Structure formats: C-alpha cells, structure tokens
Amino acid sequence: MPLASSILQGCSSIHYAKAASINGMLHVAKKEFAKGLSAEEKQRKFILLNVDFSEFPICLYRTGTDKYAAALLECTHMGCELNVGGGIYTCPCHGAEFSVEGEVLEGPAEENLRTFKVEVDNEKIYIQIS
Questions:
Q1: N or C: which end of the chain has fewer CB within 10 A?
Q2: Considering its fold, how many domains does the chain have in total?
C-alpha cells in the first residue's frame, strides 16, 4: 500500500511546464511550481519539461527553498522513461531507482542519470542544456 500511495501522489501532481530555450538554457518561471493562483497556495515538488533534443522529459525537482535539481527521465539501464513519485525516480521496466539528483539508488542501472546545471534568480529558473 505505501508504494501505491507514492505512485498516486506522483500522478496527482504531474505538471508539464512551459520553458523558453534561449542560448542553450531553458528559462522556466518559478510560478510554474505554484498549484494555485495565490502565493499562499501549496507548491509542487516537481515539474516536467518537454525538450527538443530528447524524447524524454526533464524533471525539475524542488529540493529546498530556491534549490532545484534537473535530470533527464531516461533510465541509464535500458532507456525506459522513469516515473516520478515518493521523492525518487523509478524505472517501470526493470525497477532501477534514482535520487532526484540523478544518482543510482538501486540497480540494475549502474550509471547515474544525465543531469543539468541549475541557476535561479528572483523570478526564473535556468537549466543549462548545452
């Protein structure tokens, strides 16, 4: 039952955000993490970004106040798209698990995920993709 609740938690909060690609950087508005219209509304833990260079999305995960981690959701074992939920990435094909920072937690994957440098300012999050 705990596994089911973490999967359901992940599914209920999936949000595909809009990002502008400018000079090798994705520009994402911080407001994409807001679940409601007001600043007092609860914040999402993560958002997904579709990118031109891959069939897999990038997950931008909020790890703290103004701290984010970005990883491509492609399993390094056999190339399956990862699921997000319960504070980890999980491969539905063979069960590999990764931290939100992209590190292997459980095999069969042996290589960490492709990750991206993230910077922030007052209004935007910048992900270096090139």
A1: N
A2: 1
Strand partners, 46: 61
**Residue span of the structural domain in which 44 resides:** 2-128
**What pLDDT digit, counting tens, does each position of 55-110 carry?**
999 999 999 989 999 999 999 999 999 999 989 999 999 999 999 999 999 999 99
Distance from C-alpha of 106 to C-alpha of 99, rounded to nearest angstrom? 10
DSSP 47-63: EEE--TT-SSPEEEEEE
Q: What is the CATH number of the domain that holds 12?
A: 2.102.10.10
pTM above 0.90, yes or no: no
